[in-house]
Amino acid sequence: MEKDYSEKVCICALNRLLGFEPGIAHGLIGAAGSARALFGMTPDEKLAAFGPYSKVAPLLDEHELRKSEEELERLGEAGCGFITITDPGYPALLRECEDAPLGLYYRGDSPPEKVFNLRPQIAVVGTRDISLYGREWCRKIVGAMAAARNKPLIVSGFAMGTDIIAHLAALEAGLPTVAVLPTGIDDVYPSRHRSIAGKLAATEGCAIVTDYPPGTEPKAINFIRRNRIIAGICSGTVLVESKAKGGGMITARLAASYDRDLMVLPGRADDPRSQGCNELLREKLAEPVTDTVHFLDVLGLGSPSRRRASNLEDEIRARYGPVLSPEELGDLLAVAGIIRRRRGITLDELCPEACLPYGKVARYTGMLESDGIISTDLLQRCSINVKIV
To answer: How far is CA 216 from CA 102, 157, 375, in A?
Structure first.
């Protein structure tokens, strides 16, 4: 080489050349000792190392290094960066994966070392075609993690449906979140989420990452490569809803292959959007999310610290305030208040007293029961649990 390029520039170039074959890239660096040493090989050394018919050796030239150096300069001017697998800010669990990317392009106001490796990292993923049931439980799951003793970093893929709901729920609940893109860091996919991307990147502890070079478009194959980063970053993955085949299932199976915790939301047997979750349960690759407390312990987050509320209203506001709209929170408080006054009241009796339709009353009592605030018997009579009063 005519110029002595930094290790970061050399890794960036190698990542661009062999991004779809990270195992080969790791092997080359391991054999050469460093990316700089690899690019610094003479023609004779390359011939001895790669043989005369290698497709990789001719690519390891100074032209690629100049391209990477210029790319990193442009990224810096645009407020983005590139973290290599040897940097302290690189996600530690991802580094353990055999197919870990050599580097990640990064956008965020917080430095990488203030985002990764400081707290548990949990992926929340699922279908784009999410149901109302999935939407509600996605927000409940993220809200429960916000109340856990060990509050995690929420990681997802920024897609429509489950992913964006998880990101927004995290931001609303005060949890940091990271979006992993299937494009270059200079783009946002889907474009309708551009304003959310700006808000996310500007929020403390949050970031947008990708291993794709700037200018990469969202091709179908890119999503598979993106999904292994989501699974690799995290110690646990929660699959909210997924058809038998889809990106969420790919991420979930990758998480299982990395020997990470996997939780899924069970669904109806006849709902295509729950086929993937139910399949993983049948295969015993995942544990079910059946309430908003047990799954926290499975993921190592610890159950919520149960401060005795001074009254029922304080308990409900603390639990549901971050995940419900003010109108919904008001309705939930009204339902809980009536149950406290009229122990044993049925759902049919609740409807006229709360001035709410049966569907909403059933939803609110279901939420309160799943979190242990109330109990209902076979006759649908509701009672406040003694430990909450």
So the answer is: 17, 16, 53
